[in-house]
Amino acid sequence: MSAASAVAPRKQFHWRGLRVPYIAPWSAEHTLPGEIVRRVGVGGTGIGYADELSHLDRRRGILWTRQSLARGKGTPDLPGMHPLRQRQAVTHMLCQVCGIPTFGADFERWGERHLYVARAQQGRPIGEGEHTVMAPVCLPCATESVDACPHLRKGWTAALVSYAQSWGVAGITLHQQTLKPLPLPEKGLHRVPTGDPAERWTIAMREITTLHRVTPVALSDLVAAA
User: Fold this and answer.
1) Which residues pair with 159 in a beta bridge?
2) What whole-number distance in Å separates Cα of residue 9 and Cα of residue 7?
3) Fewest C-beta atoms under 10 Å: which of 8, 64, 146, 176?
4) Confidence band of 2 (pLDDT split at 50, 70, 90)
5) Angle at 15 between CA 11 and CA 19, to 5 degrees
6) In 3D, which of 162, 226, 198, 156 has the Cα closest to residue 61?
């Protein structure tokens, strides 16, 4: 038995007949208060929490938003993403729907590749080097999602990916003097690549990766070969 298959299944929650994705936030999971202050640290000046606990509030030196953990409590926001669970799924290659590592038998059969499914923007497939905040998905969850998810029913695309490389974060960047949020771009959050000076002034909410050695696939072919 592989390490992945030995992992105990995470509790699954359903809402109106749909499985709630592991990364989805619930109404009881509130953004937690935290006073933002200017701080001087390794690398220069930036922002931090007045009561910061670096091992909880930062990753790779970047400040992250605080959101409570109450999975399964209240009403799910199906299209949304809980910052911590999104980051866990992306960095540990967990299925974004069921939360189980995607290193099982399918991963081995697919030549040590992970499955990604995304909304097809204007019919465009997932491309080499694509930037994404999405985590991989296991095959059973993928086939369920394309039928059940209203977002994907508008058009979806799938690909096998050899590896996802960390690119940076998406979040809210603050003005260096006023510490007020800068105007958000049209797509919702500021995207800040690793090493950019803006990292020190950003409250991260999503992990961004780039996808490499991408091969578009049809889910029906993967199911038939399983």
Assistant:
1) 116, 216
2) 6
3) 8
4) very low
5) 50
6) 198
List the beta bridge partners of residue 94.
Answer: 101
Q: Which residue, 151, 147, 163, is CA-closest to 90?
A: 163
Retrieve residue 71's tokens.
Answer: 């999975």
| pLDDT 10s digits, 181-197 | 999 998 789 999 999 99
Over residues 159-184, the mean pLDDT reads 97
How is residue 183 written in tokens? 């105007």
By DSSP bridging, strand 18-19 and strand 44-49 are: unpaired
CA distances to 1, 108, 110, 171, 193 from 65, in Å: 37, 35, 36, 8, 17
Per-residue b or e along 27-39, where b marks 16 or more CB atoms closer than 10 Å to that residue's CB: eebeeeebebeee
d(CA 89, CA 134): 8
Q: Using pLDDT thresholds of 50, 70 and 90, give the confidence band for residue 9.
A: low
Phi, psi for 106 (deg, rounded to 5): -65, -40
Task: Check pLDDT > 80 for residue 118.
Answer: yes
Whether the CB-CB separation of 178 and 143 falls below 8 Å is answered with no
- Residues 6 or more apart whose Cβ sits within 8 Å of residue 189: 170, 171, 172, 205, 206
